[in-house]
Structures are given as C-alpha cells and as structure tokens.
Amino acid sequence: MIDLRFKGLPDHITVAGNPFLIKTDFRLWLNFEELLQKPQIKLADMWEYFSGNLYPTDPDETLKALMEFYTNPNSTPHYSGQSNTDKVVDYIEDGEYIVASFIQAYGIDLTEIDYMHWHKFKALFNSLPEDTQMAKIIGYRSYKKSDKDTESIYREQKQAWSFPSMRREEEKALLAEINAEFYNS
Predict the structure, then answer these.
(1) E-strand spans in 2-104?
(2) Distance (Å, rounded) from C-alpha 111 to C-alpha 98?
(3) Where are the domains of the chain?
(4) Cα–Cα dist 95/50, whole Å
(5) I need a surface site. Which of 8, 94, 122, 163 has the fewest CB within 10 A?
(6) Cα 8 → chain centroid
(7) pLDDT tens digits, residue range 124-175?
(8) Is the pLDDT reported for residue 27 higher than 70?
(9) Contact in structure between 69 and 13 (CB atoms under 8 Å)
(10) What is the pLDDT of residue 163?
(11) Computed over its alpha carbons, how large is the radius of gyration of the chain?
(12) How many angstroms separate the CA atoms of 105 and 134, rounded?
C-alpha cells in the first residue's frame, strides 16, 4: 500500500527488525515471479539481484519480506470466499500491451523512462482504464460466467471495496443479528 502520509516510496525491507536497502526499479521486479519459479535459483542469488547489500540471516523472513514488497498488499479489494487462481498477467509476454496501455492512459513510455518505483508501476498498472488493451485482456482472461443480477454484483463489490473498519462493523452487525435470531428466540 502506498501511504501518502509519507514522502517517497519504500526503499528497503525489514528482516529480523533490521532494514535492508533494496533496488526498487520496476524492471527488476518484473522478473521476481519468474525467478521464484526457477528451482535452481537460490535466495542468496535473488538477494544479490534485488539488493547487493549485506544478506539478511533469516532466509524465510527475507523471502516473506521480498514477497510483501513485490505484492504490495492493500486492504481493498477484499473478496471473501472467492479465489481466482487463473493467471491473468504475464509481465514479459504482455510487454507490448503494457507499454501501449501506459502510453495511452498516462503518456508514459516504459521503454524510454530511466526509472519508476515498483509500487508506482503497480499502482498505475492496477488502475489502467478499461479502454486500454491490457485492461481488456485482463478482463478476457479473468472472465467467469455469472448468473448473478446487477444488484448482487454491486453488493459484492461494495463489500469487497469497503474499508477494513467498515467490514468489521458490518461483521459485528451480522453477528448481533445472528445472536438475536438464535439465542433470543
């Protein structure tokens, strides 16, 4: 999540309470998922690729911290009970569509810029307008037939995009309703 209360974007991960500087350019991080798929790659080699600095001593926590930096999790959207395991983006295979979509949407030519932070790239990528080719491709790849009516779809989306505190309040209200129904009868 990009926290606008702070100037700049993260340039380190924290492992065992210690900060470790990492390289943040989007070009490097486009390879992260592919590197994870290679059985012969060692975490130390990945660390050299993404940092080059002193290697943290806890490999599991290091990998977890790198994964968190890569995914840059956000509290929204939150989909409960739904998981889509279909791969909808391949940053390498979809390169030309990503470049064209960034030019169309933002006037940014990814092949010519010197640097863009990975989290900024992800924020722009995740917010590509629906009329860009990449957004259309993602829509095609993630399509699932649904018998739901428009109202139920919007209700699900409202829940998915609600802020965590609002979800907790909704859960409390639902729990109170269930308790009233079953225990006060």
Answers:
(1) 12-15, 18-21
(2) 10
(3) 12-71, 95-141, 150-183
(4) 21
(5) 8
(6) 18
(7) 999 999 999 999 999 889 888 877 777 776 677 677 656 676 656 666 666 6
(8) yes
(9) yes
(10) 65
(11) 20
(12) 11
